[in-house]
Structures are given as C-alpha cells and as structure tokens.
Amino acid sequence: MLTNVEHIGIAVRDIAASNDLFTKLLNVAPYKAEVVAAEGVMTSFFRVNQTKIELLEATSPDSPIAKFLEKKGEGIHHIAFEVDDIEGEIERLKNEGFTVLNEVPKRGADNKLVCFLHPKGTNGVLIELCQEIKE
Ligand SMILES: CC[C@H](C(=O)O)C(=O)SCCNC(=O)CCNC(=O)[C@H](O)C(C)(C)COP(=O)(O)OP(=O)(O)OC[C@H]1O[C@@H](n2cnc3c(N)ncnc32)[C@H](O)[C@@H]1OP(=O)(O)O
Ligand SMILES: [Co+2]
Fold it and tell me: pTM to 2 decimals?
C-alpha cells in the first residue's frame, strides 16, 4: 500500500548553490547529504514537517540526472511514495500494466529500498516507491 508522498526529487546543476537556495526558501538546513554511486547522484535532503525535498546532482555524465538536465533543465524530477511492502507493490503495479524499471528493489538514499515506474506509463511523471530499511 502507498502510504504517503515520501519526497519530491528535484534535479539541480549545482547542489551546493541549491542547498543555499532551499535553506533560504524552507528556512531549514538540509539534514543529510548522501552519494548514491549506483544511481550516479549526489543527494541532499530537507524536511519540512512530514514533507521531504531531495535535491539531486549528477555525479557522472551517464547519470539519469545528467540526461534529464540536458533534456529538460532543472526542475521536479520525480515523486516518491512510501510503501509498506515494496515487493507486493511491484507485483500489483506490474499486474496493473505499469512498467517497473527495476523489478528487484535497489538500495536508495536515506536508508530506503526503492524502485521506479517508467514515466511513459504515468502521464509523464517519474514515480519512485520507497520502503524504509529496518536495520
Ligand atoms: C535512488 C536514489 C534516490 C532516492 O530517492 O533514493 C533517487 O531518487 S535517484 C533518482 C535518479 N534515478 C532514476 O531516475 C532512476 C530511474 N530513471 C530511469 O531509469 C531513467 O531516467 C528513465 C528510464 C526514466 C529515462 O531514461 P532514458 O535513458 O530512457 O532517458 P531519455 O531521456 O531517453 O528518456 C526517455 C523518455 O522519458 C522521459 N523522461 C526521462 N526522465 C524523466 C523524468 N524524470 N520525468 C519525466 N519524464 C522523463 C524523457 O523525456 C523521454 O521522453 P521523450 O518523450 O521520449 O522525450
Ligand atoms: Co528519490
């Protein structure tokens, strides 16, 4: 089951400059910076009550963020929903006809297991599902 919007991912060219901007905007400093090498991203997380913003900078030219920036420029990159059973949701969504880009959940940022749905099947919005990793 999808429980809530866990974060909004925003693609940025210069995460240090965007950290300053979002700190002013949200009146709060980022609580975490984390590289996810497998995704080719550097992330920075802000929390405003229950809402999180994830800033994403590409760490390599073949990063999905680099391609996105080249094509669309800076802006909202994805919406992430929190789920309580990511494997179950993957099966359910596959059966509903959505294209799951990684059918095996992968390690994301901020201590989550994640998967993504192709935006072609979701009205042009990249959707991420994420489940807290219980240590
Ligand atoms: C996991 C760490 C962290 C976390 O929260 O834990 C993250 O969120 S990491 C975020 C970065 N990782 C990903 O985005 C992984 C999933 N994304 C992908 O697999 C690709 O980006 C994919 C398949 C969505 C697009 O890759 P492709 O190589 O096909 O790039 P194209 O430029 O050819 O795109 C094809 C088509 O899709 C449109 N597109 C691409 N990205 C997005 C997007 N973010 N939102 C909406 N639409 C997108 C692109 O415009 C192309 O459409 P077209 O009409 O053909 O121009
Ligand atoms: Co994300």
Answer: 0.97
> What tens-digit pLDDT sequence spans the chain (135 residues)?
898 999 999 999 999 999 999 999 999 999 999 999 999 999 999 999 999 999 999 999 999 999 999 999 999 999 999 999 999 999 999 999 999 999 999 999 999 999 999 999 999 999 999 999 997
Dist CA 11 CA 74 (whole Å): 5
84 alpha-carbon distance from chain centroid: 17
CB-based contact 128:115 (threshold 8 Å): yes
The answer to whether the CB of 8 is under 6 A from ligand 1 is: no
CATH topology of domain 2-132: 2,3-Dihydroxybiphenyl 1,2-Dioxygenase; domain 1 (3.10.180)
Ligand nearest to the CA of 133: 1
Between the CA of 57 and the centroid of ligand 2 the distance, in Å, is 12
ipTM of the complex: 0.98
Binding site membership of 81 for ligand 1 (Cβ less than 6 Å): no
Helix H or strand E segment including 62? none
